[in-house]
Amino acid sequence: MKADIVAVSAGRGRWRGSDDRSGRRAIPSLLLALFVGACVVYVFVSPFLRSTLQLVAEIQDDSAYYFQIGRNYADGWGLTFDGRNPTNGFQPLWQALIAVMQLSLPFRHQPEQFVRAELVFEAMLLTAGLMVFARTLRFLDSSLLRRLGMMLFLTAVFLMIRSGMESSLLVLLAAIAVYLQARNGELERWSGWRCAGFGIVLGGVLLARLDTIFWIAGLFPVLVLMTESGEDGRLGVRLQKAFRIGLVCAVVLIPYLAGNYLTYHHLMPISGALKISFPAVGYYASDFVLSPDTRALLLLSVILSVACLVWELGPWSRGRAGPLRGPACAMAVGVLLHTGFAVLFMKWAVFSWHFVLEGFAVCLLLPYLCSRMAVFVSPALQRWAVAAAITVLACAAPLVVLQREWKSDMSHNWHVASYQAAKWVKTNLPADAVIAMSDAGNMGFYSDRPVVNLDGLVNSFEYQDSLKEGRFREFLRHSDVSYIAQHAFWHDPDVVSGEYVSYTYRPFSHLYNRTGGELRLKRSEEVYRSPSYYDGPHKTVLVIWKIAPGDLDE
What is the pLDDT of residues 189-211, one digit of tens each? Predict the structure, then answer.
């Protein structure tokens, strides 16, 4: 065992020596500091330099659900997207922060200004997360690997996840949890206050994004069972302290769950209930709507997680691991559980922001595994491999940001098309108009008109029941709907071209997996038709029809 420790210590020394002996550590440190400073300045300043259409093109339509629900709450309508039907289709902590912003800012009825303010708020959260993660990386012995971890965080997380969703908040809280776990050391040595603080942070992580339950489910076995001391007799102490952490976490979470059950008679929010097929098993990975960089990070996170667990749990000697062993293994278990659940049970509407934690995991696992396996790699190869990786990341990140955020041609962007349609509605439709639409975030937030959400993500459980019973038109009538909009004509080329007589709209209940009625819409009742654009690979248009008197009668 002593020989193993000496060997691993020597490996660490080789990592240190690979950049310490050169005598030029100040130069790469200075370059990294300049890159960090440029990234931080960019995320704070860019919302004010980019045009409204450039912002709209990158802000998710789902983020506008948060913005509109927050504005309705600030205006006294309660938790509702359309001002008519109550909803819990949101991640609670992020929705609460957005509501506070809407209550506090003087321009909540100027949506373009609010979006810029929200992006600055995200920049604040991400900068705080960057600082916390930098402290976590100090537990690595090698400054070279610390720089690699920082570059990964900047390029895979910091610059890429600002979209109006809960991702920035989740990354900050996850970074705090990882840092506290590493700093506090072995669970048996945690004080009562440290257990309580860690439980509060874990509760915040869950409220920021509920499917982080898989990470937390993997965290507790790691806390209890993975110990460097080998004192199995202390298992009872670790179980007791893990129970305290779980109890505090539950105290943070239970009021939200109880409120859900008392108000909506369901523990799970409607948005989660619609997306999950559990207990029915399927294979849904091909239906995920992920950007290429998210797919690459997701695959890399799974590979690194498997490698981490094989290395740490295998039947071979590993030597002393250090403070990051527990956080790395917990993150690895969480990645595998979450990804496996998503592939088998997430049947609909799975987007890139669902896997932000996997991107964060890459930033932790890759430098950690490099430090653990250093003994097998020559110092020269270590130095050149990490330097090459840092160089590639530094060069690629500005190009990716330029391509994502500074587009000049947005004529084919769905978010822009929905924004332009919403501005047309605000200018041309009566003040008492009520619109119904799937993917209704931008339409509801920018149009200044009530918009009933037809895909159900920010509607009520009662809407799903009405679809189950075939009462779609009755639901529209009771919601005072006078217009209906549709944007995804994937299999209706005659509607896209405008050469049709009528189009039959059939809403689908993702809760009950069935259609819920139909509504016949005539070409002569069109009031708005957008220029053509692409929704994924499909050329389509956004059309708004006026619902004729009597069309909603049974």
Answer: 999 999 999 999 999 999 999 99
pLDDT bucket at 382, cuts 50 / 70 / 90 = confident
Percent of all residues in the chain with a pLDDT value above 70, rounded to a whole number: 93
φ, ψ for residue 76 (rounded to 5)?
95, 15
β-strands 543-546, 526-529: how paired? antiparallel
Q: Cα separation of 293 and 53, whole Å?
A: 23
pLDDT of residue 408 exceeding 90, the answer is no
Question: Model confidence over 475-496: pLDDT tens digits?
Answer: 999 999 999 999 989 899 999 9
Regarding beta strands 514-515 and 508-509, do their DSSP bridges make them parallel or antiparallel, or are they unpaired? Answer: antiparallel
Residue length of the chain: 554
Place of tokens 């929200």: 118
Please state the three-class secondary structure of 35-71 as a single string. HHHHHHHHHHHHHHHCCHHHHHHHCCHHHHHHHHHHH
Chain centroid offset of residue 155 CA: 16
CA distances in angstroms from 536 to 60, 356, 488, listed in the order given: 14, 21, 10
Spatial separation of the C-alpha atoms in residues 482 and 233, rounded to whole Å: 70
The answer to whether the beta carbons of residues 150 and 134 sit under 8 Å apart is yes
Q: Could you tell me if 373 and 319 are in contact, meaning their C-beta atoms sit under 8 angstroms apart? A: no
What's the CA angle centered on 218, arms 213 and 222, to 5 degrees? Answer: 145
Q: Per-domain residue ranges for the chain?
A: 2-405, 414-546
Amino acid occupying residue 384 = W
Model's pTM, two decimal places? Answer: 0.94
Question: Does residue 86 have a cis peptide bond before it, meaning omega lies within 30 degrees of 0?
Answer: no
Helix H, strand E, coil C: the string for 319-387 is CCCCCCHHHHHHHHHHHHHHHHHHHHHECCCCEHHHHHHHHHHHHHHHHHHHHHCHHHCCHHHHHHHHH
| 150 burial type by CB count under 10 A (0-12 exposed, 13-18 middle, 19+ buried) | buried
Q: Which pLDDT does position 534 carry in this prediction?
A: 87
Residue 457, classed as helix, strand or coil, is coil
Report the distance separating Cα 173 and Cα 206, nearest Å: 10
CA distance 198 to 515: 45
The residues, any chain, with a CB within 8 Å of residue 109's CB and separated by 6 or more, are: 71, 448
The label of the residue with tokens 């537990």 reads 139
Give the DSSP H/E element, type plus range, for residue 164: none
Q: Is the dihedral of CA 291, 349, 158, 110 positive or negative?
A: positive
Mind listing the pLDDT tens digit for each residue in 510-523?
999 999 999 999 99
| 489 SS3 class | coil
